[in-house]
Batch of 3 targets.
Target 1
Amino acid sequence: RCSTISIDGVDLEMNEYWRAACEHAYSELGNLGERTMTFCDLRLPAKEYPIGYSFDVDEVNFPTENLRFLGLVGMSDPPKRAIPDMIKKCRSAGIKMIMVTGDNAVTAKATARAVNIISNGSETIEDIADRLGIPVESVNSSDAKACVIQGNDLHNKSPEEIDALLNNYTEIIFARISPRDKVSIAEGKYGIIAKERLRSMLCLACQRQGGIVTMTGEGTNDVPALQQASVKVVMGIAGTNTCKQAGDILLVDDNFASILTGVEQGRLLFVNLKKSIVYTMTSNIAKIMSLLICLLTTVPLAWGIITVLCIDFINITGAISLAYEKAETDIMKRPPRNPKNTRSIVVFSSILLASSFIGIIQVATGFFAYFLIMINNSYGQQWVRIYFFI
């Protein structure tokens, strides 16, 4: 849009040399992870645009061509120090991070590397092409683990193509995404796509693959995408009231690390609850099995009401202590559970373990102690007489 450039107060024609120089400076700032802003101006006729003229940026009522380029400004917005480590822990826990930003592709990739969304050693197709000195078209896409996709590239992608994109790459960044609903996707004038539509598309694509999708948001325009997510996380400080009402979890400190802490506590709660239930099941199954054995073999019952109450009290104490166990060292290194196979806390394998293995050991140990005490208290002779009499 610029036809001239201001160099040391002198207006020069914006030719290929100066365009290449501007693009080089733009790329250099982007590689540093800085967000760039371009400044330009245009002298307007005072008669057509007097003081107090109402400029409308939605329905543009002023010229936007033949501008004078003034310069570039790079703004550094470094991530918090804890974010890179949190991203690493999320990756080790099997959580796939997808970055959606309005920054340009160069800045988005630099930011993603700074926060470890693109891990060390991972390359995009463009990185491989630059390293080998070959055209991008000659690079095998399967050699790249990361990719940076611009919003306009998703304009005509089908759901199947988005699914393939999520399957082929483990580290994905979407750049040049507009945060405004008013941007017309059909026109494609600015080469951008609405962020809300993209987030909804990604959410549905991840859910089609069986994933549990967590979406974060803070503004009213994030509500449509949040409604598609399995877990809706809303910022408690910066979030709007409309967004908070649509959320499932309110992040009171607006800190990404709190999400990871919540995942860890959720896994710990699930594991401890499962331990408590299985522990309780083993004693109940052992009591049922021993009761059936006593009834079928006409052996006197091994306990009375007081004994059963004492056993239940001891079991409750053990189950409560298991519920407060600390997290195991590898709890955040395990892959996420498959929601199709773990709809209930106690699955068939746990029931089988409690009944066939632990329950049998408890019954055998209990009957061994029971008969041993009976023999030591002279009950054995009476049983022998009854046996021979029969």
Target 2
Amino acid sequence: LAKFNLTLDPNKIQNCKTNITYLGFNISANGYAPSEDNIQKVTKFPVPQNVKQVQSYLGMMNYFRHLIFNYAEVVEPIVNLTRKGTPFVWSENCQDAFKVMQEIILNKPTIKNYDESKPLFLTTDASKVALCAILLKKDGENFYPIEFFSKQLSPSERNYPSIRRELFAIFMGIKHLTEYLYGRHFYLLTDAKSLTYHMNLDKQPDIVKRWLLYLQDFSYNIDHIKGCDNPADFLSRMQIEDVEVNNLFHMGDQLSHSNIKLCQSMDSCTSEIMKRIEEKDSKTFQKYFIDSYTGLLMFKIKSGKDQILNKIYIPRNLVRDCLLVAHAPHFGVQKTYDFIKNKYFWPGMYADVKNFCENCCNCMQNKPKRKTITHSIPKHHLAPGEFLAIDIVGKLPRSVDNQNYILTIVDHYSRYLEAIPIPNTTSNTIIRHLNYYFSRFGLPKYILSDNATYFKSDEIVNFYESLRIEHRKSSIYYPKSNGLLERTHRVLKESVASISQKVHDWSTSLLFFKLHYNNSKHVVTQYTPAELFFGRRVNIPIHSYDDPKYVEDSSTYLYKVQK
């Protein structure tokens, strides 16, 4: 302080503090996040009723935009209401954007402190409506966000070719983050493979020449990365906070019988139905009843000709909690719906599930839209465990338990998946984990793999021969010949990316994914993999709230499985 001739007022100094609140942010050694007061203001802000209230809301949210990934694209439906000549209609898209922003702020987005000693990475991306940039610092093996930047594109900018939009994103990102990047060397990460070629063309539009002239003042290396590896995509698009391993399968008590019963009594619709049942209304009895064991309102639904299934009636004030639990593994609409309909009911259930899944932020970020392709149904094998397909996913970012790859094993008959984190792809590692798999589920007759070196080494060949397992290989340069695993890998990557809250926490999220994947109905078999593999359903979090009414003896259970 003396060196720079600065003085401090003792009355305004706070000593021995681990964090302070300054200009609306809570600042600590770990970074800074919105203060509790500001979080309350955002979450309590009413839904805007006119353009003036929209402008007030956007003015408040703009204060936090540097903490929020792709802010401009998220709030675009709301911003459109402020444009001249646009009638004020608060649409469903506006409401979804409003809810997303509230949830983001409620989760306290935290930005790490800038550190000159750590290498800097800038990743950019551009869509048809907006562009974004993320400034990251690398600390050890981890990447941490320092600041987010996003901008909506004007009508003329939206007409740019895609490669020019990518270059525009780089120009705007560097321009916005000049205070961090000027005078420092940094790494520019982009998934636009032809960008370097276009930047070196002799003939360029004048506007592109101005961008390139500006970029010449900065020192950087351009590194091309695949779209799935871009920090603005896949695993690195996750939140940075740690997740508690012990709470991996805990979904809260919202769907406990006691809480459902309480919410049913408070909901106007369900309480009215229960009142009619107590008054012994004959029409009500045809569809509903109160379970004598739990006291819950139940809904009767026909399944087949004579079978009647009883479902718990979820009141409207619990629908969102039920959707959150069912969609926790971030599967698609049909699988999420199947999770719920096995046990619960409420009017308009499928429409609610469809709307919730299609507007899930994590799914939109980590799952690209695809055209539906009709596949022929593969030939089934005679029994579970007879024919296995194996492969390896990776190399992945090193996990918290020092794993770099995933060994995947899929049973062709049941589609049952085993996904095992492994540190390397040596023959000894693969054999060790296959032995562990065989000790639990028995020896297969056939194993299908690709032609990777680690799957056809002498050790692996001798291992299969010693166990009399026939090794089959998929076609070279045609991964679709092992299509079952290729599709499984796609779902695995997308779901784990959506579940995980930290880049290096994927091995923990993998456990959660496997549980739900093996207990969701498969589109080909129309059964869950666990049902075909074990002969029974396995409990998942959304089904784990039951209080058992009876315990089945072993002989009865065995008879049912054999039947």
Target 3
Amino acid sequence: MKVLSHKQKGAAVIGGAMLFNLLVIGTALVTFQHSPAALSVALLAYLFGLRHAVDADHIAAIDNATRKLSNEGKSPFTAGMWFSLGHASVVLIACLIFALTTQPLQQMFPGVKEIGGMISTLISGAFLLLLAWANSRTLWQCFRQRQRLMRGDATRVPQESHHHGVLTRLCAPLFRMVSKSHHLFLIGFLFGIGFDTATEVAIFGMSANHAAGGEAMLHIMLMPLLFTAGMMLIDTTDGVMMLKLYRWSQFDPLRSLNYTLAISSLSIVVAFAIGCYEVSTVLQLNTLISPALDGVMEAIISQMGWVLIITSIGVWLLFSQRAKRRAL
């Protein structure tokens, strides 16, 4: 049996996500071909999935988890896919329940949304802080190894300490949970408990159902499926792209350490900033500052997903150009 190369595996994973997108989009086009209004709502649901995929907490969680698994010698090509599927499953379940029990759920949904939003934000913030802490250990080890390499002592590799503190022991189940790519399904599910996106997609589904003039369940469930397709495409591509960047940096020891230091520092700062902001919102610590400053912070945090992707690509281009110049 032929073993696929890393490039082929990455292409296969992204190709699968693209195929799922084409299947869902094609189904929506056929289903709503006689209803321009429903097609418009379907487009909104898909675009909402594309937009939600680059939320800062998504990108930071996928990138940090990919780095963690990559440092353990694994190949988490599907990390982003599993995370997005876990997150999307909350949307799918919520929309299904919402469609089956419209009136009762509409009456109690505001309370469910508020409680779920607090739980989701707290879990998201805590997990990002834990990932930032875990990757900071890798950053310190890389820094020490780079110092030894620059001194010409490349044979000495820093050993991981076996003395764990209270935080490590308390969070050990969570760290053990993310030892394989598919474990990110549960992490994505926990991130999605908030129901804020599920509410909007459920409304899209209800609107499309009425616009199409029918009561078919397919009209409703196509909306969260379109949302899932868009989110999975971006998150899957991000996971594969980040793994490729990490793999690329491992061919030259010094280049690997420099690249790891740069990207790890960026990932840690972003994960720590988002984690602190999300936890502070749950604890209402943001009320201690002015509303204007809180609005600015929220705007910055909302764009950090794009910043992390663009900066990672920029760092890779910078290091690759330097490597080419040195090879000449």
